[in-house]
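Hello again,

I reread your note about wanting to compare the complex against the isolated chains. To keep things tidy I'm splitting this into two emails, and this first one only covers the full assembly. Below are the input lines as submitted, including protein chains and any nucleic acid or small-molecule components. They are followed by the predicted structure of everything together. The single-chain runs will come separately.
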Amino acid sequence: MKLTKALALIMALAMMFALLTGCGGSGNSASAPAEEPAADTAETAETAEAAEPAAEEAAEPAEDVMVFHIGGVGPLTGAAAIYGNAHNNGSQVAVDEINALGGSIQFEYKFEDDEHDPEKSVNAYNALKDWGMQILVGPTTTQPAIAVGAEANADRIFLLTPSASSTDVTDGKDNAFQMCFTDPNQGITAANYIKDNAVGEKVAIIYNNADAYSTGIAQSFTDTAAEIGLEIVSTTTFTDDSANDFSVQLTEAKNAEADLVFLPIYYTPASLILAQAKDMEYAPIFFGVDGMDGILDLEGFDTSLANGVMLMTPFNPWGTDEATANFVDAFVDAYGSKPNQFAADGYDCVWAIYEAIQEAGITPDMSNEEICDALIATFTGGFTFNGTTGNDMTWSANGEVSKAPIVVTIQDDIYVNN
Amino acid sequence: MKKLSKNAKSNAVTYAIVIVFYIVMQILSGSGTLSSSLTGQLIPICVYICMAVSLNLTVGILGELSLGHAGFMSVGAFTGVIVAMSLQASVASGPIRLVLAMVVGAVMAAIVGVLVGVPVLRLRGDYLAIVTLAFGEIIKNILNNLYVAYDAEGLHIRLLTAISKSELAEGGFMIINGPQGATGITKLSTFTAGFLLMLFTLFVVLNLIQSRSGRAIMSIRDNRIAAESVGINVTKYKLMAFVVSAALAGMAGALYAMNFTGVAAKKFDFNTSILVLVFVVLGGMGNIRGSIIAAAILYVLPELLRAVNDYRMLFYAIVLIVVMLVTNNPTLKNGVNAVWTALKGVFVKTVPVPEEGGESDE
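Full-complex prediction:
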């Protein structure tokens, strides 16, 4: 009796797992677009004999239109959702523009949510692999990018992240490239800028010591300040759990008579710091980094508080150059608000890949490994890219971009270049 | 088979579930039909099953609420990473390093478990829940400020202040870098390792439950005063269950950390503890088999729901609510039982239905 029961249970379980895998399979084929052959090539890349007929099929249906599968990973839900959504929207604008050109290169684009969690990010990446992803734009944030980078490196899928800024993202991975400048680079540039332009004499730092991005910049800023003789009078920290009151940190900075407060943090806590500093009648110069970008669009934030705030950003949505103006217009049309630098980086990533594909002469019937190698060779081989976040960008062999961060001051709700 | 006790048969089914799961996945993976998505989830599934089974020991068998299980997982994870990375040069074999990492991770987690358990488990009431909740947050903040590096001179461990590369001897490297966590871990975890860990966890937990000590632990859960009156050392048995549970979580943590190139303390927050608790509660408290099935299904579910994009978390929540209703509402429960009996009727024609209905499930 018991035995039959056990047998029934095992049978049911086996069936359930078969169903599960079946579900996964059917879900993928349903979401995969008409270009089945391209997806097939990606999946059977390792088996050469299977890849060959698939490649022939790919050539048949459309002779000169080449469709690439571009995947994106980032947080669409959770605490970091604003960054992932901006990245997704920016990339989507670029994909739409490229497809509207009607050229021979067309992009099929799909974005998966990772909730700013490395574990979920790897899952999202694997889901995209099942979809037939050939090139990855993302992940948006640092920790997930480190985890996914290793997987993509093993699978030989080219990865260009818009905003994962730690050096660990690209370290030891020849296939991982960044569109943003690295954390240490930002800290060094900020310290030098403050010293060279005599923006402040006594510097206070408030940073999030539970956040890799914030700690990374704060560390390199402190090191550089010591080297160049910039005086740091107060260093205070907070964590995500205590990011709702900054009176202790501000009081310490005020008592130390700091005339500049360096904020290597994201804009949500920064907005609170600005408000509390005003209540305390403490008015130093606030100096932010690229995470500060977006503060003007924060819901319920009194933008007059941001007057005089300086920040480093690669992207100025009030910029007058043609590329920026076009992008901002297209973005406002599609989403009703001005893009921030995450959107601009996401937009530039897709365009950079488009131009690199053209330059390298890549076709979608190539295996992921061939595409990856060709793109690596192009990106490290003197490829220059002009985008909304900088001109004449080039990439070093270890995947870091070289572009100059610009320092802007917020005046009357717009960024003014310094 | 008839001579086997009820327990032994029940155990055999539990082991069989895990073994069949492993074999089916290996066959699918070997034949290339397993999607990348599911392949990537296999090790996390093993880890969460071990977490759920070990937490069930505290919550279901001992009857104490623990809200900081992820804290023990993180202790195991970070200890495991330190062990695996510092032995990189001296121990060449990956599997041996993984086993060492898991063993040391388990020992560390057990020590922390003793520290937490000794004062708290002497008390009556919900104090364990309060203290483990705090413990989870404290350990997360400590790990966020922990800096560990390794060079020829050995390990450098420091709290609060960062270690810069220039302080290290030639060939030195960072293992844990504060909130950035551990990066550059060599991926050592395999599905087979996860499978063996699941078997080990089940072996430990099932044997403990069905031993003399296990009966003592359950008697404390059912009636503490009665247990004390027959001379059971309440604190000792409570501590036994709690520390075993912590040690197994530490092992699972080490396996988890070795599956990714980077691991940060942020991951092991309150939400992860609650996630594991949800697996235990929905699988049925005290029901080990239920924990296994619930952990596997509830882990895979959000990934399967990717097809519905923005609504997937909504669907996930609905599924959780439905499961809760079905397992607790007598009307729905009878309905499900009727379907189950009918299904059984399809599989095993000779079974007379009335007898089945009259027999209660264990």
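For quick reference: Chain B touches chain A through 57 residues (CB under 8 Å).

B.
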